[in-house]
Each structure stands twice: as C-alpha cells, then as structure tokens.
Amino acid sequence: MNTDAAPPTETVRPDWAGIDQLPTLDLLHLMNAEDRTVPTAVAGELARIAVVVDAVAARMARGGRLVYAGAGTAGRLGVLDAAECPPTFGTDPALVVGLVAGGRTAVTEAAEGAEDRTELAEADVAALDLTPADTVVGVSASGRTPYPVAAVRAARAAGALTVGLACNRGSALVAAAELGIEVEVGPEVLAGSTRLKAGTAQKLVLNMLSTAVMVRLGRTYGNLMVDLRATNAKLRERARRIVAEATGADQDAVHRALTATDGRTKDAILVLLADVDAPTAARLLTASGGRLRDALKPAGG
Q: Is the pLDDT of residue 1 over 60?
C-alpha cells in the first residue's frame, strides 16, 4: 500500500503496530483516548455545519427533502439517521431519506463492490425526482468513494442543494458539492477501519444536522420532542411526561387532553396552555405551520 497516496483515515500509525499484543484494558484505553479526539474535530467544523443546517431548513420549510447518500458504514449511518426522524419528530418517512450503495440489503450485509458503481448512485438519485427544494448530503470517510461522489454530482445537476461530508481535507466529494463539512479525525487505531473514529464523527454530524434542522422547523418545543409518534407503551408514557412538563398540568388533565387529541402531543399541549378544544388546537397548529410557539400567540399563550 502506498501510504503517501492514502488519505489520513487510511494510513497506518507505526506506534500502534503492536495493539494485538496489548493487554485488553490497555487496548481499550487507547481506543477511548482516540475516540475523545472526535468531538474536538467536529467542533472545528461547527460554523460549516451551521451553514448547512440553515440552508437545509430553509429548503425543507418549502417542502423539500433531506437525502443522505453513502456506501458501507457511511451509508448505513445515513439510513439510521433517516429512520429515526419519523418516531422522533413525527416526519413523513419520505421527508428524510437514506440511500446506501447496494440498496436496503446493504444495510445488514456487506456490498463492498456497490460503492464503485456510479451508475447505481445516478439511478438512485434519479428515482427521487429531485427539486431545488431538496438537499443531498454525500457521506464518505475518505471523501473519494465513487457512490456518494456520483450521487452528489447527479443531485447538483438536478438542481438540488448538495453537501459533502468527509473525514479528510481536499476531497473529491466536497469538491463536487456546493457546501462541505470536513471533520479530520486522522488514522484509525485499526488502520483503515473507518467505522471507528470516522464513523463516530459522521454519526455526530448527522445527529446535529437532522436535530438542528427539526428544531429550526419548529418540530420541538424547547427541548421537548412534541412531534413524537406515540406508537408503543414507552412512547405513550413519554408523551404524557412531555405534555406534563410543557404545561404543568396534573396527570388527569394530561390524560384528557391526549385522549381528546388522539394522542397528538403538540395538540394536547396547546389544548392545555391555550384552553381551547382539540379541533381549535389542530386549526391553530395548521395555521402556524406546526410551530407550537407561534400557535400559542394568537391563542394568548
């Protein structure tokens, strides 16, 4: 392997060559010490992440979608982040989408050859029928994986906003995109295993991106998940706690409000804080674009 040509995430640290001979606790200390460098690396890109968040939020407010595209670990992390948005923020599953090279089977099974097939990326992007309101975020540790690079190029040609998220500087991915985030994490303890620090960095950035966008879109009230979908016992109990925390109401009042609003947490909060009935709460929320704080203003909140 020509380490001169390899990106930093793929290089070998000679001083780690003996990790297989370390006592287990020492190996874990080494890994933990390296993991602690990741948040610092992400912090160095916060200004760029903020630009991306505001750009994505502005487009999603016009009905746009957020699409992640990656291969291997990067692709799976995008699928994971997209899958968490409906239960957390009450979004339609089509609003945040994860594309992974090789399709859905690649989420649980290795499809290493798929990452080199640019035609797959082009087809996956074409199937979305992108508009200028959409955003496509290509994710790649090295920043040179063909699948996300091709996805970003195809999305840009379709008029969508494009973002490159890489863990090395000067990557082809960021060069292909309009906006770039480059979190430099350096070599991995296990050389080239970018599911480690690079994967952690990508997860942190994707968490920030989707969460901050949803906050900007009014899908939270303070730090409460008022748009969550209460689809099981745990989430129904969480909904009750959220309504109680937001309103200060007793459990009987919370139960009545949630029953009246068919379990819609945001509506129940508005019923209690604005002293309105469920249909009025629904109407006020529709008029405010789903923003609870704005819905409270005309209701006297």
A: no
Q: Is 34 a catalytic residue?
A: no
- Beta bridge partners of residue 140, listed in sequence order: 166
DSSP per-residue string spanning 240-252: HHHHHHHH---HH
**Rounded average pLDDT over 226-237:** 87
Helices (H) and strands (E) in the chain, counts: 13, 5
Neighbours of 46 (CB within 10 A): 13
Per-residue model confidence (pLDDT) at position 2: 41
| CB < 8 Å & 24+ apart, contacts of 45-50 | 45/181, 45/182, 45/183, 45/205, 48/179, 48/180, 48/181, 48/182, 49/181, 49/205, 49/208, 49/209, 49/212, 50/212
- Residue 229 confidence (pLDDT): 78
Contact indicator for 79, 85 with CB cutoff of 8 Å: no
The residue from 34, 115, 182, 188 that is catalytic is 115
Give the C-alpha separation, 89 to 225, whole Å: 7
Q: What is the mean pLDDT of residues 242-261?
A: 95
Q: What angle do CA 6, 191, 30 make, to 5 degrees?
A: 135
The predicted model scores a pTM of 0.92
Average pLDDT taken over every residue of the chain? 93
**Known catalytic residue at 84:** yes
- Which is the catalytic residue, given 84, 122, 178, 184? 84
